[in-house]
Amino acid sequence: MEIKTGEYNVWNEGSTIHYEGTLRLSGTDAYQPILELMQAVLAEKPQNMVLDLTQLEFLNSSGINLLAKFTIELRKHPELPVKVLGSTRIPWQSKSLPNLQKLHKGVELVIT
Amino acid sequence: MADLGRLGKETFVNGSAAMPPVKGGAFTSFRTKFIALIGATVLLSLLVGGGVGLWNVGKLSHDASAEIESGLTKANEEYLTRYINMTSQRATLMFNRTFDQVTGLAKLSQSLIDNPQLNQDLNAFLEQYPGFSDKMTYNSAANWMQNARGEPSVISVWGYLLDENGRMRPDVLEAVRNTQFFDLVVPSLMTSGQDKLQMYYVGPKERPIMRTMPYSDQAQTFDQLYPGNNSQNWWDFFFPGVYEAWESWLKDPSTRPVPTDITVLSPYVDAITGKLIVSYFHPLYTRSRDAVAGMVAMDVTLEQLTQLVEDVKIAETGFAFLSQQNGNVLTITPEGESLLGLTEVSATGAGVTGHERSLLKSTFKDVASLRMPRPGATTIDHVTVEKDGKPMGLLVVMHPIEPMNMWQPNKGIAAENLMLGFVVPDSEIYASLYGAQKQISSATNSIVKGILASVLGFLALVLALSIPLSRRFTAGLVNLADAAGRLTRGDYDVQVPVKGRDEVALVGSAFNSMAREIREHTEMLEHRVAERTSQLASANDEIQRLYDKMKDENLRLGAELDVARKIQMMVMPAQGELERIPDLDIASYAEPADEVGGDYYDVLYIPGGAKIGIGDVTGHGVESGVLMLMVQSVSRALYERGVTDPREFLDVLNRSIYKNVERTRTDRHLSLAFVDYADDAVTISGQHEEVIIIRADGAVERLDTMDLGFPIGLEANINDFLASTTVPFARGDVMVLFTDGITEAESEDGRLYGIDNLVASARRSHHEPAGLIAATIIADLRAHIGKQKVHDDITLVVLKHR
Prior knowledge:
Low-confidence stretches of chain B: 1-26
CATH superfamily of the domain at 574-801 in chain B: PPM-type phosphatase domain
Oligomer: heterodimer
CATH class of the domain at 574-801 in chain B: Alpha Beta
CATH architecture of the domain at 574-801 in chain B: 4-Layer Sandwich
CATH superfamily of chain A: STAS domain
Strand content of chain B: 15-25%
Distance between the termini of chain B: 80 Å
Structural class of chain B: alpha+beta
Largest sheet of chain A: 6 strands, mixed
Number of helices of chain B: 20
């Protein structure tokens, strides 16, 4: 599955979801397609799950809300190991991603 | 509906206006074309047929003309050749008769010379008869002797033959006596044969006495016309060279140009008679034939020859002429002379007056370059002359007559062929040819006229027949054209009458069914247009209704937004409220990205302290604004209830917001931090952006709040994540609180403003009052953003310890 525009690109390779570019969609409704993609990957009941954010240059607060909501949903699958990949190069990630770990202990945060 | 129907009809009318008119154009109607085609076909075939006929007639007439011309030319030439030969023979005969008489006289004279005794006896005998003895008298004035008038012949003895006493030398006297036979013989010769002017005897060079029959004042005339003749030898004076030529002939007869002794003088004007004459000389020889002994001669006028020549009549104006070999024309009619462009000049010779009228000097080039025929041959030439200013073709036939010895002044004796020439105008020779050609031409003309008349007549007949025929043929098409015109004008009920079963009838049937279909289609179209128009009208009504509704809702929505925004602005702390806080100089700046912002900040005053909150609701717009209002209200309530513990404060706030978010299904949360000031210290709690403190000495402290709290409204219980930290905040210290709308503001080239720029900007102006610091930061931020779109709400709060 892949959602692609001139500004951003979200796609999955198996249970790894890649985020790329700038996500500045207005409101939760606008993020619905991306959420559906993530839920679809989750619905496949994978052995593990990886959210690769290393190429996501910008994510606005609605996008962060999306990640938080998805993380809360992941708590219903405590057996599923989740890895979130971030980059120190991108300011918002080190600021916002730790909250995901706070929400769900099963989230392994790797910021490199 | 009515509008659309009319529009449709107008389109059809315009379509017909663009079509060429069916009737009226010269070559547009099928019938005209049909007639033109038939006319052209018939005309073409007739013209081709007529043309071939005309060509054949032309060729025939040309061939006939050529045949006739060739035949006529041959016949004419044969006729002329025969005629000129005959005339030539007649001329020769004429000359021969003269020659015969001269020869006769010469033979008689010669025989007397050869028998001197007989001559003496004859003379002695004759002297006994009156009239035969010459009574010579001496003319002392002129110094010559001549017999008296009344004698049959005149005898002149020149001065150089007399002695000093004016008496004849004895040999001369004898010679005179020896010529007395002349009076006996010559009169009979004179009256017989050809008309002769005179016959005469001239003695040998040593005594050139001259006896001439009939008598004339010979010596007197000579003295008058030829002065000096009496003092020079007669032969040398009058005919130089003749005598010597004869002497050479005597030695070798083969040197004669023509094998006869007769010598002819070229025509000249006779001194005595004044007539144009020709003289025939016959030499006499001594008995021993060793010397010339004078001559007998005869003068003949050219009249007889002229008569012969003038008697020649060919066609209407054809004539003949006689010329010498050198082209000198001897006899010709005045008309002929003029026609051939000849001019007469008199040439004076030594003793006689010559005659010059040469063809070679004709004023016409063709005539001047005429070639002379060879002896025995006949030439036929066509020449062009000019008569009355118009060119005129002449046929010139020439034929030489028998050659003769001819003496000419300064030239001596040479063979001479006199030329007989016939001249006939072409128009007369070819009169019959021209007549035939004229007849052929007129016949051709009448044939041409006949062909043309038949071509035109047949064409008229064909056209006359094809017009009603074409009317029949094209009636169906005309009906069709009319019907199509009516159809074009919107008469969809039109039908054409269909007769017969030809293609036109088939087209007619097809047209009828087409017209019916068009009528049905048109009716259906009108029906459908009406239907569609009605649907459109109702849709339009619906649209209008919806539009009105939307306008209402929009207004209402606008009003609601206005209200929300006003409420939001109203709950923001007023500047006056901020100034009530004794220790703190507070300035704020808030600019929502939409009409209603999602950022939150508040300053709550308590005696001896203050609580400053700053937060950022995810998203913006009305829902974010409402969530912010809730946060503000709950905060206010908690504050008023005296909840001072920062963790408790945040915990209760989170619970109430979380429950409200759940109830309202608002998919939002917020970051939120509080700064509590009291007694030169600040306690910071809650998770939000970094808190920047610029100390009075310019030192910068950046306090991370990530571990001091958790997003509000996301989790039901965040108690475990809550914490607080307390730092000193003394006089001159500056605190900067902000939302990510500032640090993540993009420049035109996509760079984020960032916290470092914010810190630098605050530090640059930290000694200023809070209001100026905030203004400096915002100005710097504005400069950074430039014309770039502002994506997020921007909120800035600056606190400065007084």
